[in-house]
Write a structure and sequence with these properties.
Blueprint lengths: L1 H12 L4 H14 L7 H20 L26 E6 L19 H14 L4 E4 L11 H13 L3 E3 L2 H4 L3 H7 L6 E3 L3 E3 L9 E2 L2 E4 L5 E7 L10 H4 L2 E3 L2 H13 L2 E8 L2 H11 L3 E5 L9 E3 L2 E5 L5 E9 L5 E10 L8 H23 L9 H5 L3 H8 L6 H8 L5
Parallel strand pairs: 1-2, 2-3, 3-4, 4-6, 8-10, 10-11, 11-13
Antiparallel strand pairs: 1-14, 5-9, 7-8, 12-13, 14-15
Length: 409
């Protein structure tokens, strides 16, 4: 950080994002407990404190306040002049809210993603935003996941697929995450058998009439083989529908003139097998950590592999009257700082950071036995530092509290 200030100047340094400052604060709060006596740790804590304060200014970049929606920018047209549908595909977010930009415009982050989505929807009215799963951090019940779902609802996701990392969370936690909204929580082949799980507001399918008048059906496929490493108690609570009934439902919707899109949240070989079995019109692949540059053909149908926190897959399709895809254009849009910033997402991130820090402090306070270590004990090893401290006003700080009868605060 210091080298960057020297090499690039203060103006460049001010491009640091709040994501770095608050994330570093959380990490140091958790990891620094055993290193309070280190001069370097103290220096970093002071620096992080400065960056957190600096972060308050970052939300006003590009003339936006902390609660201002992003302003759309022009989007390059597709090769299809008037597509019947435009799908924006995300996945594999793994709980990421924001990123550190300390080495330049690193990709990812909800604030810039929202700017990308807003720009696409402004250019292509009716564009659908779909998550293919693994939006959650791998620890399903982590506080971060609740705040991530706030950003998804605010961004206006049409469908959020429950993948293996979402289903790893408890039903009670999922109920907290699935606040009633226009977002559909999609899980076609997987459900929970617990009492709480049976009341989750899950959608088995998402049906849309497109601006062109064509019809679209979105389904998802998550099978037991994809969640083999899930905790056994949780796995026992889940029930899975095999491909047979799903294939019949796909055929039923296709017969009704729908273009059928299936989110395949599954491993590589299983994805190809499922694609050959289900006979949908388009497949969106989840359960992966890459964003392919080109679509793939499998069993004569298109498969989009766009599951990475750094990019959004943009898909344009044209269909015939029977719902069959006649043309497809695809691009992988990297989420960089060329997209407008959504200050509301930074508000949510800062709220998460505050609550995460508070939770960490509360956990520390609940320690069964807290032992007070006097400064003289520290001075046994850190003699020079202790001698300097003894000469400073800080050495009399506790006595000041004693006089004011404030030692119990």
């Amino acid at each position: 950080i210091v080298n960057r200030i020297v090499d690039h100047g203060t103006e460049s340094f001010l491009q640091f994002k709040v994501g770095f400052s608050v994330s570093a604060g959380i990490v140091l709060l958790r990891e620094g407990e055993n290193n309070y006596n280190s001069r370097m740790t103290r220096f970093v804590f002071i620096l992080v404190g400065f960056l957190v304060v600096l972060g308050c200014e970052i939300a006003s970049q590009h003339g936006q306040t902390a609660s201002t929606p992003p302003k759309a920018i022009p989007v390059k047209p597709f090769s299809i002049a008037k597509p019947d549908a435009v799908l924006l595909v995300t996945g594999g977010t793994n709980g990421r809210l924001e990123v550190c930009n300390c080495q330049g415009p690193m990709p990812g982050g909800q604030a810039r993603r929202s700017g990308l989505v807003t720009s696409y929807r402004n250019t292509f009215p009716g564009a659908l935003l779909i998550s293919v799963g693994d939006s959650f951090w791998v620890e399903g019940n982590d506080l971060m996941n609740l705040y991530l779902m706030q950003t998804y609802r605010l961004m206006g996701y049409d469908a959020v697929t429950l993948g293996d990392q979402e289903w790893a969370a408890s039903d009670k936690f999922l109920a907290r995450a699935m606040v009633k909204s226009d977002t559909a929580w999609l899980s076609t082949t997987t459900k929970s058998t617990t009492a709480t799980g049976q009341t989750l507001p899950l959608a088995t399918e998402v049906l849309r009439v497109l601006p062109s008048g064509k019809k679209l059906c979105i389904l998802s496929d998550l099978q037991r083989d994809t969640v083999l490493f899930m905790d056994k108690p949780r796995l026992k609570q889940l029930a899975f529908t095999p491909h047979g009934p799903l294939a019949k439902h796909v055929a039923h919707r296709k017969a009704a003139g729908y273009t059928v899109v299936v989110v395949l949240h599954t491993a590589w070989d299983d994805a190809d097998i499922a694609a050959k079995t289900l006979d949908a019109d388009l497949y969106l692949r989840g359960h992966m950590l890459k964003c392919a540059d080109k679509p793939r053909r499998i069993a004569g149908k298109w498969m989009i592999e766009s599951s990475n926190s750094d990019c959004v897959g943009a898909v344009a399709i044209s269909t015939d009257d029977a719902g069959r895809i006649t043309k497809l254009d695809y691009r992988a849009e990297v989420v960089t700082d060329r997209w407008p910033l959504d200050g509301r997402m930074l508000d949510i991130y800062q709220a998460y950071a505050r609550d995460a820090m508070r939770a960490a402090l509360d956990a520390k306070r609940k320690t069964a036995r807290i032992e007070f270590v006097p400064s003289s004990t520290c001075g046994q090893c850190h003699k020079t530092e202790y001698a300097a401290w003894k000469q400073s006003p800080h050495a009399g700080a506790f006595a000041t509290l004693q006089k004011a009868k404030r030692t119990g605060d």
